[in-house]
Write a structure and sequence with these properties.
about 60% helix, mainly alpha, 8 helices
Length: about 140
């Protein structure tokens, strides 16, 4: 089933592994390069699942911000799980960012601009939650 069909149908019954399976990487020497369009699709699915089926339409600016994340992060295989972890527990992620940076008054709902700005914290947040078994992606 196509991602847009799933998102349009407000599907919230996907497992996290199915959401992450949307991510596509290059082949051969480029096996670690994440395709930007697949990150956009994964974000949409995660947003719908963990925000009570609310639909999201990514603007061109949002898509560009997600693409910038790919360029910013050396290990591109960490981006998808980090974004999923942040969207899945947005309040916890925002508390983590506020505790570890000078940020405050972060939005109540997942926001691409916040994720772009704090992508390193999202990766650290996901890693900490996975190692302490407090959170499973």
């Amino acid at each position: 089933m196509e991602v847009d069909q799933i998102v349009a149908g407000f599907s919230t019954d996907l497992e996290d592994e199915e959401i992450l399976a949307v991510l596509k990487y290059g082949k051969g020497e480029n096996a670690n390069l994440l395709y930007p369009s697949s990150l956009c699709q994964m974000y949409k699915l995660a947003f719908v699942k963990y925000n009570k089926g609310k639909f999201i339409s990514l603007t061109k600016k949002d898509q560009a911000l997600l693409k910038q994340m790919i360029v910013q992060v050396l290990d591109q295989k960490t981006i998808g799980p980090a974004i999923l972890a942040a969207v899945k527990n947005w309040k916890g992620f925002c508390k983590y960012v506020e505790k570890n940076t000078s940020a405050f008054n972060l939005p109540a709902m997942p926001d691409v601009m916040v994720l772009r700005k704090y992508v390193d914290q999202a990766i650290q947040y996901a890693a900490e939650k996975l190692t302490t078994n407090e959170f499973v992606v």
